[in-house]
Every structure is written in C-alpha cells, then in structure tokens.
Design goal:
Length: 805
Amino acid sequence: MINEKDWKQEQERLDQVIEKLQARIAELEPEVDGLRNQAGDIRKRFWEEVTVNTSTDEDFEETFYSIKQQEALLSERERSYRLRMQQWKSMNRLLQSPYFGRIDFLEDGLGFSEQVYIGVSSFVDSDGMNFLIYDWRTPIASMYYDYSPGAAVYDTPGGRVSGTMELKRQYQIREGELQNVFDTSLTIGDELLQQVLGRGGDSQMKSIVATIQKEQNAIIRDDNSRMLIVQGAAGSGKTSAALQRVAYLLYKHRERLKADQIVLFSPNPMFNSYVSTVLPELGEENMQQTTFQEYLEYGLGTALRPEDPFDQIEYVLTEQSTREYEARLNGIEYKASVAFLQALRNYAEWLGQEGMRFNSIRFRDRDLITVQQMEAQFYGYDRSIRLANRVAMLQEWLLKEVARLERKEREEVWVQEEMNYLDKEQYAAAYKELHKERGVFDFAEQYEEVQELLQGKSRRDEGDFDYAEREEELLRRMIVREHFKPLKRSVKKMLFLDMVGLYAQLFGNKDDYVAMTKETEVPEHWPDICEQTKGKLGQLELFYEDATPFLYLKELIEGVRTNTEVRHIFIDEGQDYSMFQYEFLKKLFPRARMTVLGDFGQAIFTQATELYGADSPLIRLYGESDTRLIRLVRSYRSTREIVEFTKSLLPGGKEIVPFERSGKKPLLSKAGSDEQLVARIAEDLAALQAAGYASIAVITKTAAESSEAYDLLIAQGCPPLRLVTKQTPTFEKGTLVIPAYLAKGVEFDAVLIYDASSRMYHRESERKLFYTACTRAMHRLLLYATGEWTRFIEVLDTSLYEVRQ
Ligand SMILES: Nc1ncnc2c1ncn2[C@@H]1O[C@H](COP(=O)(O)OP(=O)(O)OP(=O)(O)O)[C@@H](O)[C@H]1O
C-alpha cells in the first residue's frame, strides 16, 4: 500500500478525471441524441426528400442522384452517430473504473518524466493534447506489462524509445472509488493478481486486462507471425490471452480490420457463451465464433451426416478392446495423419487419368445422360488440365446438354398428358406469359408494317399470331422447364460427382489402395478399417475421422471454396485438431494468420497434434521462419496445492509452475459401496454450497456416467443440480454434472471427480483425460472411488493429497 499523502493525491486526481469524464459525457449526450434523431428522421423521410420521376432519361438521372445524395447524407449521419455513440459508451465504461495502472516514465534525453495512467480506453483532456488515460493497447502502455521499475523500452512505428521507469502502480477502483493502490517492484500484478485469482469462478470468462503477464503480453502483441503457436499448461491463460489479442488487433488495425474478419474455433458450442462477454467488456465487438463441427456440417450439406467428436470420444472411452476397436483406433490415427493427406492428393492425381465416378443424370426413370457419356467427355479433355478445372468444364457441358435435352423433351407424350391436368393457376401463369409475348409480337408486327409501307411493298400475310399453337408450345415449355429445374440445380451443385463412391473406392483392397495413392504402407487391420468406413458410408453417415478427409477430397475434385475475407483465425484447444484439419484450415483461409493455443498435456482425442517441440508437424504448416512458438508454464487457475497434485499426473509436468496462492490439498475419499459414494458426494456438495462456492462441477469420464451420477445424486435428495450434455447450449452458474471432455477450457470453484477408481481410469490414453478433469478446479479438488484408486494416483507422493478417514 502507498502512504497517506500519495493516497490523497491519487484520490484527488481520480476525482478530477471522473469530473472530466462526466463533463464529456454530458457534452456528448445531446450530440448522440441529436444524431440519432437526425438519422432516424432521414430514414423516415427518405422518400419524401427524393423526387421520383422516371418519365424521361433526364428525370431518371435526377432521381438517381437525389437518392444517392440522400443515401450519402444518411450514411454520414449514421457514421458520426456510431462514432459518438462509441465514445459515449467508452466514457461510461471508464467512469466506473477509469484506470488500473500507472507508470512514470523518464524518456532518455528528456528532463521530466511522464505519468502514464492506463485504462481500457484512452481519454484525452479537452485541450486535445494531454492524455489523462492511455488505452492499454497503446505502445507506451506495453511497458506496464513488460517491465518492472528500472530501464525500460517500448516500440513505436517511428522506432524504439528507451528510458527509465520510475514508478509502477496498480489500482483497484470500484464505482469511482479508490479501493486499493499497490506499488510494485519486481513483477507486476502479484498483489492484484492474488486478489483477482482468489475470487470465485463465474459462468463467464473475465478480461485479464489489468494483470496481463509479460509472457502473455508477447502473445497479445505479436504482429508479425503468420503462425503463432502457444503451448501452455492448464490454466496458464491461453484463452484469456487469445481474447485480449483479438481486442489488441482490433485496436491496432482499427482502420482495416473488422471483428467479423476474425474467427475463433471453440472446442464446443457451450464455450462460445463462456467467452462471449470478454470483448464487449473491453469495448470491442465479438469476433465470429464457430466450432470445427459446424464447419464440417456446413461443408457437407444435408446429404451426409458427420458424427461429432463427442460421439467419437465416447466410443474410444467406453468400448472394449476388441479387434474392431483396435481397427477403429488405427483408422482414427491414420486418417488424421499427413500421410493420408498426401495419399488423397495422389489419389486426386490418379483420378485425373482414370477411375472417376459419376452419377448418371436421370429423368423419369431413365438415364438422360449416362455415366459412360460423362466418362468419355471427362477423359476426352486435355489431361494436362487440372482435375478441378476439368470438372468445371464437364459441368458446363452438362448444363448445355441438359438444356438441349429439355428442348427435345417438349415433344414427349407425357408432356401432352400433363397438359390435360394443368390447374387454373398454371393456366393463368401461361396466359400471362403469352400476353407478354403477344405484346412483343404486336410491336414486331407494327414495325414490319411500317417498314413495308416505307419500302412500298405489300405485306405478306404471314406471321399472324397463332394463339392456339403458341399457347400449346408455351405450356409444353413451361411443364418441361419445371421438371428440369431440379436437374439443373443438381448439376450446379455438382451432384453428378459420385463423392460417396469416390471416397469409398479408396477403401477396397490394399493393392488397389497402394496403386491409387502411391502409399507404401497401410495401417494395421486395414480390411476392418475399410469395412467400418464403407459400412458407415452405406448409411450416408461419416465417422468424425472421415469428415475432414472427405471434404478435403471433395475440394480437390470440385475446386476449393476459400474464404479470403477472414484475416485471423484463432484455434483454441489446438491439440485436439489433426494435422489434416490444420492443412484444411490453411487452405480454406488463405489470407488469414493463424493463432493456435493448446496443451498437449490435455490431448484427449486420438487424432491429437503435438504443438511444441522440434518434431511438431504444426511448425511445418507455414514453415519455421513464419512461425513463432511461445510457451506458458505458469498456471493461474488453481491453488498451489492443486497444481502440485495435477502436475505430478503428467510425465512432463515438472516444468509447470504454480502461482503462489494457497488452499487446501486435494481430498481423497474412498467409499465401501456405490451407495456410500453417492451419499458422501451429496453431503460434500451441500457443504461446498453452504461454504459459498458458486460454481461446482461433478466431473465424470463419459456422458453415460454423467447421466447415471445425476440420477443417483438426485435420488439422494441433492440440492439443485444440472446435467450438462453436448446439447446444452450455454454455461450457467451453479452445480453441474458434466463429462470431462465437455468441461474442457472452463473452470469451477470446486471440482468433484465422481469416480477416480482404477476401473474408470487405467488405460494410458485416459491419463490426459483425468488430468484435464482435475485441472478444472480453482479452489477445491475432491476425488472419490469405491475400489482401488486409479494408478495415476497410486504412484503419487502421499504428501500431495489428504485422505479422508
Ligand atoms: N494474467 C492473468 N491475470 C488474471 N487472471 C489470469 C491471468 N491469466 C490467467 N488468468 C486466469 O486463469 C484462469 C485460467 O485461464 P484460461 O482459461 O485462459 O487458461 P487456459 O490456458 O486457456 O486453460 P486450459 O488450457 O486449462 O483451458 C482464468 O480464470 C483466468 O482468468
């Protein structure tokens, strides 16, 4: 804490700033109102102000310009309104807590030091010169995060500025009142951070703007790398840093970067709601948020249904180790690999020479255009032309063919039959069209008459409008056109390509696969893998592991539909994506930079990708020179006792450093029977709730276990509980029962591991799942078992936990 004199000065300055903010808000208010009304008025009276007259070309031109002018006026007013509104909002945000930090910086060569107060946005005195508050994203504010008092530098577009930081101070201000002031010397934030981290959890993530740590600041402000990879321990602030980074980028490039040009890939839809308040809290608009699954579904359309990653993981966790199980696991691994990606590329090349598969174009139970015709046409094109281009040429040819056959079809008997059954409305439509045509015909008639008069010729009496004949022709045309519409649509959608057949063709016998893909090796249990894949395809479904490869192949054949608007993609829980998926994303967003945040210690999916280390394939995605790796080892979420316990669960966990915040050691409770176990958990839940923990999670291994636990706990008369499934749309505060893989990325005041016995967690592949579950706890971690403890606990040093007697 600071001395009384300093406190008084700080309070005075705070009062002054608040007064100035209030004055500015009062000044802005009428402007905001005025502009809002003006824009509203213009919008309402838009058509009164423009003179619409289209009788002559000149009138038309005048009308056109009058509309343009009115539009320009409206958009100008709306722009100023938006700008003022933004200012007004950010002033109001500042009013509650104008700043959280201050540094006094003496620039080399200058005789005086500047007091730099730092807040969530800038505020300049009415003279326009004096910064009362600096936005945390300004270059000078970066020193607050990067340095302790002493020598310090910061980079500006004009070059590097060096000097001495004479003071570094932190503030807690609530509703305009100074609550705490700390002077920091060594590392920033320790005291403030202690306070922040000691608080209870929330159903929504919070901004960390006041306590960003140096290594997190490096992630936030990185502006050069095409690819930024962050490997960070559980709770090290990866997601938090990612969101601050979005806010930073939006500020730094505010002239050209809009929030919807940034996409965040979240681990599940619930996560979207969890992080959705951070950016608005910082005064920025939210970026686009999606899940990879959503992307897959969009890409595949309605024809094929992809399994989701949660069903896949349920299978992996619950099935017994049979031959089919091993085969599926091998399949998952192989289909996630770069080798398979290359195999598909080679396959596409092979298809350029032979083996394409088409669907014939059928109409009324007959082939209008046969597969053989398409093959002949397709392989008749110059073979040096790229596959996708040849497919486009074929599509064009098909559209022409369909149009030709449509004309031919008009003479068919069925058309005549259908004509007899036309209803009134269809007749009316035909009649209308006929009259339109008649109008044109009349005009042509008149023209011809005049021409002939002028030329002194007598007219032949031909060309009279034969109504009946025209009508029939028109009706035939109409009927056939209606029937051909779906055909044309299907050609436009490339449904003449037998995509399912093309993908299934890969999964035949080994020799064919090798010949088609130039692969030398196939994974073990290949025949089973083939059978499983084709079995699923037969039901018009795709395994999760097949969905991305299938789409990739589709793009290789049909041409890639890229998104060039998006400039940044963020991938949270990046270890859960396969290399295959990364390659796909790179292709999909050719103009975007990529930020990948993840933790290999939490890699619970079979297709996981190692992010860090020399052999990380992710580094090769954009090449080493375009890639920057950052590692976070300090964990902020959990107390020291919880981190000491969880880090020992991982072979490479030694490097994880807990943040100095103390609490109780994890508590192990063993019960004699399932009933006893449930009774004990129910008791503990009630005690935790009574102790004021607002967010509590009972974490299970699978969804099936969750629903069982939920039923038993409810039957035990537990206080209000909520069961979370993959369909749950948002996170809410309270007590939840949730499978570990859905709790990824989020945190709770207290975590209860429902069953940590050896029958639940024993396979090596389950170690990381167990670790992920335990690392969700901020303040309390309680573990239960009926039989033996899982071997992951058995081997731990007994000083790391307490055992309930
Ligand atoms: N610099 C910081 N200041 C304050 N709180 C922080 C800071 N860094 C992280 N935290 C807090 O630590 C917790 C964990 O952060 P976050 O969820 O971003 O970590 P993560 O690395 O994404 O975790 P996981 O991989 O386990 O999902 C959050 O409560 C976050 O607010």
